[in-house]
Amino acid sequence: MNMKEGFLFGGALAANQCEGGYNLDGKGLSIADVVRGSQQGIPRQVDEKIHEGVYYPSHEAIDFYHRYKEDIALFAQMGFKCLRMSISWARIFPNGDDEIPNECGLQFYDKVFDELLKYNIQPIVTLSHFETPLHLVEAYGSWRNPKLIDFYVKYANVVFKRYKDKVIYWMTFNEINETMNKKDPFLQAGLKFKEDENDKKVKVIASHNMFIASAKVVDLGHRINPNFKIGCMIQYTPAYTKTCHPNDALAKRFYNIQNYYYTDVMVKGEYTSLCYSQLKRLGVDLTISKEEQEILKKGKVDYIAFSYYFTYVVSYDENQFVIDKKNKYLQTGQWNRTIDPIGLRVALNELYDRYQVPLFIVENGIPLDDKIDGNNEIIDEERIAFFRNHIMQIKKAIHEDFVNVIGYTTWGPIDIVSVSTGEMNKRYGFIYVDKDNSGKGTLQRFKKKSFSWYKKVIESNGECL
């Protein structure tokens, strides 16, 4: 049993985690450029400005900016059908509100796309993947300000027209639902809360502005090239009820609402009853004009892209749901993550049953602290087992549950900087990069055992696992 014809196997990257070159060729600072990595027990933190002598993981990352040809050649060796990547908004509009785009930035992505297409690898492009220009945060307050809608649409218009013959698949915002799910959604939406602010209200307003921006961009993209497929992208983490108590079933519904709030608006093109129930629960009033309602209707996305890594257990306690990351029925891997292949099948079914639009799994992977041996080899059997079991569940969802799945891009096919911790030792790749948590190393690339395994998977269109 293999995948259906045309299934897009590949890998996924983000500009701020792989490119480096943070201040080269006219690029402005993004929100990722002021985020420090975890160091010797000190957690990741956000600075107001860049400090001399401080290590910022995104500044060099794995130097994809200079090594993209080498890396794309390795992806081609594995037989990639596609590469999910992002355009750094600050590389195109350094401040975000500039009058004209940065031609050097546009030329860089021309070269990357051309290199991918040389190997028949389709670029799958995220417009905003935790890379909002820092100036838009400092001068406008980021997405709490509706002015960002026009800046974002202008940026999208430029790249849509520039790459309309090179890119078909697009996504508007990476893990947009994390704006509400995270206590501190700085990377997700560039938000920093003031002491006297209602953070729930700010998150709702920022999300609304992002919905309008996304809808306008979807409509614009379809007019520029009717063949464009433009999707939304969420983090999707299914949850199981802790017990069969009715209150726990209710807890699961409350948990799901915080994710469906985003997909309902972006896929259905309106604030549904579910959305209004969430607003009431948050204690936030939101006025949506008739013009905005029309914009949302015209800008419905073509597909849902999502990241899937693990599952939770939820229960009910004092009128709220409680999340437990541990599940006694599941194994736990490094970084305290549950390993749940069946949860991916659950995710696919939950989303497809609700929305009946194509699904694209654009992030799935396992972080391991891989060690290179004396022969420059990495025997990552745990990673192979992880992907084997997850791909088996995708095939069941397609063939037994009749879920429409476009493709599967693993996170990340080459070791990159972790967005959650800034670490390099939190490795996901089929390709090892010689760099450590403090930024030291040769940046030399080495194939792991999983490299040749994934190559066979793609060659057989998922049959040979």
Description:
- With 465 residues, the chain is α/β, with parallel strands linked by helices.
- It is built from 15 helices and 15 strands.
- The protein has helices at 15-18, 64-78, 89-92, 103-118, 134-140, 147-162, 178-181, 186-189, 199-224, 246-268, 273-282, 290-298, 341-355, 381-399, 449-459, and strands spanning 8-12, 82-86, 122-128, 169-173, 229-235, 239-241, 303-307, 312-317, 320-324, 331-332, 338-339, 359-363, 405-411, 431-433, 445-447.
- The chain has an eight-stranded parallel beta barrel, surrounded by five helices. A three-stranded mixed sheet has the order 6-8-9.
- α2 packs parallel to α4 and α9 crosses α12.
- The longest helix has 26 residues, at 199-224.
- It is globular, with a radius of gyration of 21 Å.
- The N and C termini lie close together (10 Å).
- The model has no long low-confidence stretch (mean pLDDT 95).
- Rounded to an integer in angstroms, the radius of gyration calculated over CA atoms is 21 Å
The largest sheet has its strands arranged as 1-2-3-4-5-7-12-13
What does the largest sheet look like? Answer: 8 strands, parallel, barrel
Spans where pLDDT lies below 50 across 5 or more residues: none
Measured as a percent range, the helix fraction is 25-40%
* Oligomeric state of the chains present here: single chain
Question: How many angstroms does the end-to-end distance come to?
Answer: 10 Å
Number of helices: 15
Percentage beta strand: 15-25%
Question: Overall pLDDT, averaged?
Answer: 95
SSE class: alpha/beta
Q: What would you call the shape?
A: globular
Q: Find the count of extended strands (DSSP E, 2+ residues).
A: 15
The SSE string, one letter per element, is EHHEHHEHHEHHHEEHHHEEEEEHEHEEEH
